[in-house]
């Protein structure tokens, strides 16, 4: 039973709200808005995803989401449709939560946004407010307004900052709310819609709001590249990055968040958003050298992990079995988009390794999926690492801490572990006879 059911309320000012796109942003948002008492129509054009949700099943792995969905559906506060045009007919507020993937030139592909805008434009209720939550470059709000082409409709930017894995909690209790609007009355109506949280609200113009989201992700990515760079230095000079992180983090200007080294940053946001920001800067004549350095530093980090595994395998990956623990870009999500684990395992396979892998969110029958073609999946961690020459932990799932390493020691070809998340306890692994290599220690 989730902690979030108590979030269901009956006393709110009920609004008709439409959410377009039932992904990692749209689905938690729709469930949370329904939990606030609103009447929500969720439009998802993928019929498989739409019918799963209708059945009360979440297509994404998010703590508390299925429980919230069950109550939202049974109380009939949440309806699912495949047609965005139909979904908006009675809505006072329409949230756009469609994907903005990376284009070949590194910029954000906003075609899902422009298509959705064209689709809904003629069907929007008189005076509706369209709220764009998708991360999109400067000028997108004005472009949506032009596509909709109706003077009675205002488009507002409300970037989303939720973290996968804690999407429901983050949607219920955001750190801050940013509302970018060039029309003050519309801004006030959107702020009022969120008046049930205590989060500070920043109301600004649309351009600044659009930039806040990119700047925010670029800052986080840079912080991670910084600590990964320090981890590399720690290894060279014989220092310990875990203690270094503590020594830095107690300074409140620096903090502890995003100060743990790892195999590199990934996921559906940081890589595409940093790349889009650099491209956006170039289009305005600004060279964002710092962000470019953060991106190249990230590739260097992923390569460092490949090298660590190669060294652990004896200097040559050919003919070696590498047992991988974790494939998602971080723990507590099933998202593998731009996962460092996938990038690293692809390099290992290209260099001749046989890659066996286990991840709690990836079923063995997912074998044929494009990003997994280079490896063999197993249903349990012990089978994945059996007979391996190196065990490599690439995602920090808590369950890996509690594995029976005595059993693993008996099953592997060579007792060597590369822990790219510093998740395991080196001392106890050494005692069991493993050779252990972490990151920056
Ligand atoms: P996603 O790809 O998981 O989901 C988008 C969904 O929208 C898909 O299911 C797709 O089928 C649907 N869709 C697209 N066009 C549609 C249409 N016209 N009608 C109905 N459905 C449509 O994407 P996501 O991860 O939820 O991200 C959405 C946006 O939010 C992106 O811009 C992303 O950068 C941003 N964002 C994501 C996160 C995150 O953690 N994933 C966090 C903050 C911001």
What is this structure's SSE topology?
Elements: E1 16-20, H1 26-35, E2 39-43, H2 47-54, H3 65-74, E3 78-81, H4 84-87, E4 93-96, H5 111-120, E5 129-132, H6 140-148, E6 154-157, H7 167-172, E7 177-180, H8 184-193, E8 201-204, H9 206-237, H10 241-249, H11 270-283, H12 289-312, E9 321-325, H13 340-350, E10 354-358, E11 376-377, H14 381-385, E12 390-393, H15 405-411, E13 416-419, H16 426-431, E14 435-437
Parallel strand pairs: 1-2, 1-4, 2-3, 4-5, 5-6, 7-8, 9-10, 9-12, 10-11, 12-13, 13-14
Helix pairs in contact: 1-3, 5-6, 9-11, 9-12, 11-12, 12-13
Nicotinamide-adenine-dinucleotide binds next to helix 5.
Task: Describe the model.
There is one protein chain. The protein is of the alpha/beta class and 441 residues long. The protein folds into two domains: 3-202, Rossmann fold (3-Layer(aba) Sandwich), CATH 3.40.50; 205-441, Rossmann fold. 40% of the residues lie in helices and 13% in strands. The protein has 16 helices and 14 strands. Strands 3-2-1-4-5-6 form a six-stranded parallel β-sheet, sandwiched between helices. A six-stranded parallel β-sheet has the order 11-10-9-12-13-14. Helix 9 crosses helix 11, helix 9 packs parallel to helix 12 (289-312) and helix 11 packs antiparallel against helix 12 (289-312). 49% of the residues are buried. Nicotinamide-adenine-dinucleotide binds next to helix 5.
* Main beta-sheet strand count, sense and barrel state: 6 strands, parallel
Given this structure, which CATH class of the largest domain is correct? Alpha Beta
What's the structural domain tally? 2
Compute the average pLDDT.
95
Helices, by number, come to: 16
pLDDT < 50 runs, ≥5 residues:
none
**Strand order across the largest sheet:** 3-2-1-4-5-6
């Amino acid at each position: 039973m989730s902690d979030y059911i108590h979030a269901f309320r009956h006393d709110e000012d009920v609004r008709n709200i439409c959410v377009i796109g039932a992904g990692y942003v749209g689905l938690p948002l729709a469930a949370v808005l329904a939990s606030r008492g609103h009447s929500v129509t969720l439009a998802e054009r993928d019929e498989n995803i739409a019918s799963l949700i209708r059945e009360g099943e979440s297509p994404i792995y998010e703590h508390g989401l299925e429980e919230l969905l069950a109550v939202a559906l049974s109380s009939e506060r949440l309806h699912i449709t495949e047609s965005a045009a139909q979904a908006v007919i009675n809505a006072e507020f329409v949230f756009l939560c469609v994907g903005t993937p990376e284009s070949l030139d590194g910029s954000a592909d906003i075609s899902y946004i422009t298509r959705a805008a064209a689709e809904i434009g003629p069907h929007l209720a008189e005076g509706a407010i369209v709220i764009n939550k998708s991360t999109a470059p400067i000028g997108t709000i004005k472009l949506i307004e032009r596509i909709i082409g109706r003077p009675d409709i205002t488009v507002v930017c409300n970037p989303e900052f939720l973290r996968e894995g804690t999407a429901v909690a983050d949607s219920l209790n955001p750190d801050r709310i940013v509302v970018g609007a060039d029309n003050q009355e519309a801004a006030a109506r959107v702020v009022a819609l969120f008046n049930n949280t205590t989060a500070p609200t920043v109301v600004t113009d649309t351009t600044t709001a659009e930039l806040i989201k990119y700047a925010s992700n670029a800052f986080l990515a840079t912080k991670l590249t910084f600590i990964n760079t320090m981890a590399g230095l720690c290894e060279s000079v014989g220092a310990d990055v875990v203690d270094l992180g503590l020594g830095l983090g107690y300074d409140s200007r620096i903090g502890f968040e995003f100060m743990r080294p790892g195999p590199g940053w990934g996921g559906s946001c940081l890589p595409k958003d940093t790349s889009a920001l650099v491209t956006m800067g170039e289009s305005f004549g600004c060279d964002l050298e710092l962000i470019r350095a953060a991106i190249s530093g990230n590739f260097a980090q992923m390569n460092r992990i490949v090298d660590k595994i190669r060294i652990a395998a004896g200097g040559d990956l050919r003919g070696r079995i590498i047992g991988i623990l974790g494939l998602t870009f971080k723990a507590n999500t099933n998202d593998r988009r731009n996962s460092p684990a996938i990038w690293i395992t692809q390099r290992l396979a290209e260099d001749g390794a046989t890659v066996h892998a286990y991840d709690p969110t990836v079923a063995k029958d997912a074998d044929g999926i494009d990003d997994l073609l280079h490896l063999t999946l197993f249903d349990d961690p012990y089978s994945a690492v059996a007979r391996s020459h190196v065990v490599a932990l690439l995602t920090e799932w808590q369950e890996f801490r509690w594995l029976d390493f005595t059993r693993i020691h008996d099953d592997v070809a060579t007792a060597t572990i590369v822990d790219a998340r510093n998740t395991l306890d080196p001392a106890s692994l050494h005692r069991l006879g493993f050779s252990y290599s972490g990151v920056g220690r």
